[in-house]
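User: structure tokens for this one?
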Amino acid sequence: MQKVKTQSTLFELTGIPAFGQAFPLALQHVVAMIVGCVTPAIMVAGIAGLSESDSVILIQAALVSSGLSTLIQLFPFIKTKYLTIGSGLPIIMGISFAYVPSMQSIAEEYDIPTILGSMIVGGIVATFAGLFIKKIHKFFPPLITGTVVFTIGLSLYPTAINYMAGGIGNENYGSWQNWLVAFITLALVTILNHFGKGIWKLASILIGIIGGYIIAFFFGMIDFTPIQEAAVFQIPMPMHFGIKFEASACIALSVLFAINSVQAIGEFSATTIGGMDRMPTEKELQGGIVGLGLSNILFAFLGGLPTATYGQNVGIVSTTKVINRCVLGGAAMILLIAGLIPKFSSFLTTIPYCVLGGATISVFASIAMTGMKLITSQNMTYRNTSIVGLAAALGMGITQASESLANFPDWFIMIFGKSPVVVATLIAVLLNIILPKENENETAAANDSANKENA
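Assistant:
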């Protein structure tokens, strides 16, 4: 009886599951996002020309900030009638790729302190967006939220495919060895998802990655040098880089923070729909976005980079239905440990891209299908199909042909040419406001008439 009770706890928001069940599921979340969490810091450090020691500090701060931001979301530390900081939902936070192009531009033109100053201003914008979420939320009915979630899933597919091929920039990109390891990893995950039982099914992604990692080792794809060179223990240094404010940089990041605050509605919705079979409450949305804003303000002083909800972890929650906050809290603690023990974090970053791609493409597919499920829960009238179709087409099309915006200002390309989710969100919201709503009775009569004619 106790075993059954513990097992069921995994599928409940509260409660303390057995360590033996919770730990591998927590590690699965970390493995799915660790490279994505560290890579933006590595990229920005390279553009900014940081020394090796400063680069390590920036990467450490990214991991620690991600862990603490996740804990704030999972366990709101301020919870009153009028204000909550943190959503209380099973969400993982990490350094977001959405900010990378802007941060690279700022790093080239200015420096890391200017990024951190802009991050503070952006965090303030996100906090205000959260406080007024009740007014904003009405612009995001299930049809619009579903379109956003669907586009998030679609936008992640190229990342997964590039990972499966070995990662862009890899000298062996596209080699048969990368594809073989990726498909073996994908096969392991798929088989366990459909034929596995118990922990084998719940930890299918982690087990798939372990299997892919072993095969990659025999192909000589794993480089252990970073582990040997990393320090054993190192505490992040608050205000190590300092903070500067520059108007254009603050505006650039603030726009992205505002849009990503709205985008977070889709991520929170995907989590509750996929893992809990319900929509998030306005209080959960408000607490989540306010928590996102305030945590970014706080961790700018630590030297962390902008954080956001992680879509791949939303996919894991939707796939496994494991929503227990202790499991995701365990993932946050692993991130903190990784930030304090560089050798540990270095080990996680030795996972080859082809293994990550093979394991996560099914996760990204789950996100897209969660969005589709939400879209089709609405009456698919001509108006609604137009909104979804045009938003997804323009969002994906413009960003995949970003060179078509070459004659536009850099700031315009930075905002609208890099993120399909931004474009799709704006198009969907505008069309939902502009297009006249159809009379459901008239639509039903028209459909009946069309069916009779076809018959």
